[in-house]
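Recall from the previous lesson that a structure prediction takes nothing but the amino acid sequence as input. Here we apply that procedure to Aldo/keto reductase from Pseudomonas putida. The sequence below is the only information supplied.
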Amino acid sequence: MPDNVGLISKVRLGGGMVVGRQGLGCMGMSEFYGQTDKRQALATLERALELGVNMFDTADMYGLGANEQLLAPFLARHRAKALVATKFGYTRDARSPDDWSLDNRPEYIRQAVDRSLQRLGVEVIDLYYMHRRVESVPLDESIGAMADLVKAGKVRALGLSQVSAQELLQAHAIHPIAALQSEWSLFAREIESEILPVARSLGTTLVPYAPLGRGLLVGPANGLVLEQDDVRRHFPRFQDENWRANQRLVETLQHSAGMLGISTAQAALAWLYTKAERLGVDIVPIPGTRNCQRLAENVAASSIRLSDAEMDSLETLADAVQGAAV
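The prediction returns the following tokens.
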């Protein structure tokens, strides 16, 4: 059991493994958000562990397998302290980088987990997610195959990503689902009406990804500039008039955060932690960063709570966001 989660508060993932109340999304260390720096990424991983962050989130298709490989030496040094979460589903790999097909068949799952174990250099994956659901494959077949991995000792706990409330219920009836990874932030609140109450009733921990709106909620003063190969250039929220309108919203958020003596990113994360507590659900957000200073800033936000008036003020911004997230 990891023994370094005393620097930030902790929760039990689905009532099981103890994790720090904030994880680290590692995707951007290998792909999608412009140029990467391996040395800087590794330094950020080390610093995260020092701060009590002990759940590191990756996927087999991030960097076409390179993201899992990036984590391998870090995990080898800190396996007693670091938990690794990875995902299967997308068939995209180095041989077919533009293939965004999905596969949830049991035979594919068995192959995918072995490849991830090899790339990560571990004997067991702490949390194994279905990255996306394929409706043509019966859920009982996919979850059954995942449950078999637990029995075989290859996986400790199961997670799902971006499923409906009904799918979560169905899956949990087959095998306990420890974590549900869905987008949830001040600017993306769709899960609150149906999915969140089901997760709460099942004791499933929510793992909000993109809790900073893919960088949008970090704030304009930080000068978010999208490089030519940055995938966000293709997202409606980052394009043309939507981008300009949303930047104006973030400027307002920045002003509100300044009045509270915190950063824009901290205000956005504090909103999420406060909202989750008020809705009675455990969360482990996984903001991604390659920067040690940003990491420390994000971790500090895990202990910030907002008043009713402050929450109401921020939520008026959420109602005005322009464009789809992806």
